[in-house]
Hints:
Elements: H1 2-32, E1 42-48, E2 55-56, E3 60-62, E4 64-69, E5 74-76, E6 82-85, E7 91-93, E8 98-101, E9 105-113, E10 116-117, E11 121-126
Parallel strand pairs: 2-11
Antiparallel strand pairs: 1-4, 3-8, 4-5, 6-9, 7-8, 9-10, 9-11
Amino acid sequence: MKKAARFVLTCLAAGLIMALIMSISACSSNSATTTTTATAAIVSIAITPANPPDVAVHGNLQLKATATYNDGKTGDITNTASWMGFNDTVLRVSSGGLVYGVSTGSAKVNASMGSVSSLPVLVTIVSP
């Protein structure tokens, strides 16, 4: 029983010491520095391909949206952008930038995030 009691006391002491060290470390790091996290803002959006190939009626074309941020970095926002086709009788565009040809003709497509929109691309739908 003495060995067991000594083991428990040793473990408790070690745990208390570790907790004390962690508290001191947390207090000193919190009071010494303040961390500020800035979020980069989108300044432009580009759709690729910029000159899409013709799409057959009932065919598909995957478009990609790339954001450029105010820190100069870029990122793929294809699946998070809002996509819009400007003529639903010619084509439809999914929430992930997939264009579907409905009937022959041409229509513009763009992508946007918040108040930033891409320049529209012209997609031509042709007979199969």
